Amino acid sequence: LFLTATPSAANGPLLAALTHLSSHLLLLLPAFLPPLLPPVLSVLLPRRYWATSAPHTLQTYLCFYIPLLSLNGILEAYHAATATPGDMSKQARWMMASSAVFVAVLWAIKGHVRNETALIGASCAGMLVRIGYASRHARRRVALGPQTFFPKGAVTVTAVVSGVVLRRVYNSGRWTDGWAHWAELLALGGVLGVVTLGVM
Questions:
Q1: Are 192 and 162 a contacting pair, CB within 8 Å?
Q2: CA 35 from centre of chain
């Protein structure tokens, strides 16, 4: 949406910035969501859903599929804006490869994880193939170094430490003892989230 339809490298800095920002989701969501989502869902979801796979499925979807979908959307938007007819033919072949990977991964893991989680995992694997092609296309036109796809070290350390702290508080089970402890966990998540954003 923000990239103009031109094969030039004029949009290189914008593409790099959007890709770098999107890459943070793959760090931040797995760090913060697992310990914070269950307390939130305990209020939002009816009690009968806790006996199903819905909470775990939603957590997996948000932690992994959404970040990859974001990154893929940005890179494929750039591809659509800059691709030649030859590039479109290559993309069609990679899309077929993506579908093949989806089927292969789904077949390999379906007996080891829940059905819904298997679908998400297979979808993520197929998405990685598409991201691989789109990023390769983008790197041929603009300077997208490895640092574009990975958060800086300070951000990574802050997010990992925040995730460890939140998991320790969550695993203690205190948040189930009453509204005060429930709010304490969410407030801690908010403070650590603000600190992480500040480091970013």
A1: yes
A2: 16
